[in-house]
Specification:
It is globular, with a radius of gyration of 22 Å. Helices cover 39% and strands 17% of the residues. 52% of the residues are buried. It is of the alpha/beta class. The strands form 2 sheets. Strands 3-2-1-4-5-6 form a 6-stranded parallel β-sheet.
């Protein structure tokens, strides 16, 4: 099977969007709803990039159930709702609207009874969007810590360990505020391993474990953190009610990869899922994936073409002392992959964030092809220097290879697909 460039690009676009579509709350949420209470109230709260769409999905599924509540999503991610209020706030660094939203959500679940149902709609991005500083901290403290973590190359699990400890709403504290009402969480996972504590920093699940890992992270960053933050991170974990939370995953990275694999199969490719939780430096993963693609191309291992290698997870980009250019983890991974492939024929790839935003720019990610480096050079770019300066977005924008979806209103982490022609 030999494909032209435009055919390969069209196939990769379809495969990527199939993964995104599998996590659409409007199609997947209703099947996971509990039975509404016989006598009590239903209060809907939530936070994340998908929170507004999830709220609308609840309204559609329960047209005759009286609903109240409030959710918060990222600026530009709101959708019209009838009975559940939608707020917007900042991501990835919280702002004053994030704190106001967090306090509104805590207020919405206060004073309930055991007859009431709290439906918590949690998705990626909720950590920044629903922010209530722990006693003794300010929003400025949390902003500074967020920026430090983002620039340090800390993994998402490390960031969430810190966020849980510095919050009055995360780490199970929303669940504590809702007690004694019945609490059911519907979650869309954007974290490797789908750990409920890590999705939006676990507002409805107990914060247990991780003491040793947190201590190691604090030791590494202690000289850069405010003293009051260090004291709180070293203090004993605040007690929250324990138990077996009713936590339901409605969409995950693994589900998205299965949907992408189904689409690849329908298009005539052999899909191979490499994993849903690949982490590490973006550029290093790009080099590794290039090596796997070359092995498949030349030796038929781990799969013989025509094939599509699929992977998910969330990589990191560690920023050095030089001011970075415009880039994101997906475009950086792809540029490193292109450099390692050196124009190898028959290999194409797409990498994008399923929420539609790769970092802070307006693209989900990008695509590469055998002629990517040549076209970049013709446009006046030196790809290796661009990679070193974390300016991959600018390169892909200039050669027209960005993948622009707009906000997808869901988020199951990054999705990468590498097409290896036969």
């Amino acid at each position: 099977m030999s494909m032209r460039g435009e055919q390969a690009r069209a196939a990769l676009q379809e495969i990527f969007m199939a993964g995104v579509a599998s996590a659409d709350p409007l199609t997947v949420l209703a099947a996971h709803l509990p039975s509404p209470p016989a006598n009590g109230r239903v209060v809907v709260v939530g936070a994340g990039k998908s929170a507004a769409t999830m709220a609308r999905a609840v309204e559609i599924a329960w047209p005759d159930v009286p609903l109240t509540g409030v959710v918060v999503t990222r600026y530009g991610h709101a959708v019209p709702t009838d009975r559940i209020e939608v707020l917007e706030a900042s991501h990835p660094v919280p702002d004053e609207a994030s704190e106001a939203a967090g306090r509104r959500i805590l207020q919405a679940v206060s004073g309930l009874t055991a007859d009431d149902l709290v439906l918590a709609l949690i998705s990626g991005g909720g950590s920044a969007l629903m922010t209530v500083p722990a006693p003794g901290l300010t929003l400025d403290d949390k902003k500074a810590v967020n920026r430090l973590l983002l620039d340090s190359g800390a993994g998402i699990n490390e960031m969430n360990m810190v966020r849980r400890r510095l919050s009055a709403v995360k780490g199970g504290r929303l669940a504590a505020a809702a007690h004694p009402a019945r609490l059911v969480t519907l979650a869309i996972s954007d974290v490797p391993g789908d750990d409920p504590r890590a999705i939006a920093s676990g507002p409805t699940v107990p914060d247990v474990g991780d003491d040793a890992a947190l201590a190691a992270l604090v030791s590494r960053l202690e000289d850069k953190l405010p003293e009051r933050v260090v004291r709180l991170l070293k203090a004993e974990r605040p007690a929250v009610p324990e138990g077996a939370p009713d936590f339901r995953l409605i969409a995950t990275p693994a589900m998205a990869l299965e949907a992408a694999a189904d689409k690849a199969r329908a298009l005539g490719f052999v899909p191979l899922i490499l994993g849903d939780a690949l982490e590490g430096e973006s550029r290093e993963l790009g080099r590794v994936l290039a090596g796997i693609a070359l092995s498949a191309r030349h030796h038929g291992h781990p799969v013989k073409g025509p094939a599509v290698l699929l992977s998910g997870g969330e990589t990191t980009v560690t920023i050095g002392s030089t001011a970075p250019g415009r880039g994101g983890r997906n475009t950086e991974c792809l540029l490193a992959m292109a450099l390692a492939l050196k124009g190898e024929a028959g290999i194409f790839a797409v990498s994008g964030d399923t929420d539609g935003i790769d970092g802070t720019e307006d693209a989900a990610g990008a695509m590469i092809a055998p002629d990517t480096l040549a076209r970049a050079a013709a446009a006046g770019f030196e790809p290796a220097s661009i990679l070193a300066g974390h300016d991959s977005y600018s390169l892909f924008a200039a050669i027209g290879d960005l993948v622009v979806t707009g906000p997808t209103l869901t988020n199951v982490n990054d999705l990468r697909a590498i097409l290896v022609d036969g």
